[in-house]
Amino acid sequence: MIVTVYEPAYRRLIRLIRQDIRGGKYPPGSLLPSENRLIQIHEVGRDTVRSALAVLRSTGEVVTIRGVGTKVREAYDRDDEPVTRGCRIIARMPTDEEMHKLGLTPGVPLFVIEKDGQDPVVLPADRTALLVE
Known about the structure:
Blueprint: H1 9-22, H2 35-42, H3 46-58, E1 62-65, E2 69-72, E3 79-83, E4 88-92, H4 96-102, E5 110-114, E6 121-124, E7 128-132
Parallel strand pairs: 3-7
Antiparallel strand pairs: 1-2, 4-5, 5-6
């Protein structure tokens, strides 16, 4: 019995763009091809390209700048944040104010670390490595 696994076109495009990013074809800070060029390269429709780019934006992998295009997000070095036993860690999406204050792009979540008797520590998840002690 042969089983065929269906992969929606936009998911396939996401996978291919991610492969190109990881493979160095589109390094951090570089522009992706335009929507029209992606349509030509991958032989897909405009809605497929827009859906794929929307997912990549929501995960913080790319950023679209009006009048410029879609760029691969710069990689950040992650800061180590020690987390001790008994801390509570919550992952959530930021408010607009937090996005502005922390310089976050859409789609990047936060870590909120709650320690007894202390104010919560709010950190961008794309730039933080939690080290459990």
